[in-house]
Amino acid sequence: MDFLELAKARYSVRKFSQQQVEPDKLDRILEAGRLAPTAANAQPQRILVLNSEASLRKLKTCTTYHFNAPLVLLIGYDTTASWKRPYDNNDSGYVDASIVTTHIMLEAANLGLGSTWVGHFDPAVIRKTFALPPSIVPVALLPIGYPDKASVPNPNHDKRYEKDKTIFYNTFAASE
After folding, report:
1. Choosing a second label site near 30 at 20 to 30 A (CA), which of 77, 125, 141, 171?
2. Cα–Cα distance for residue pair 29/115, rounded to 1 Å
3. How many domains does the chain have?
4. Radius of gyration over alpha carbons of the chain, in Å?
């Protein structure tokens, strides 16, 4: 599929079938994340695969936004590995993990799977529940699976601002 067609067609799935994601598809999804660019190629992303009944049950104590997906990826970064900008020590890890998450979402869609980016969780609860080391910062939960037959895009899915509201050439001027 053409990339722009894939980007337009992909939507946040909030109702999944219980069909399991095949191991080869999971491998391809994880490979897409592994190949994602990161600042200074530091590769600080850390991905926890939650696909057992026990781990998915634990996840449900952390957020209501799990959508009963048969697979959830917890994507974060390791602060001991992420690149820090020398001018202000800004940590690139959050951006790196976000790029990884985007690559994973798009590969999932490419494989006929659905996903939705979940940021609504308490990082401290996630850390404690999954015994994350202190250097790991959770960024996103990504429920993944086959969309339920009743799954449809949000009514606002296709609504986008005109380009002149978000794109500027040579000078930055906020839209009125």
Report:
1. 125
2. 11
3. 1
4. 17
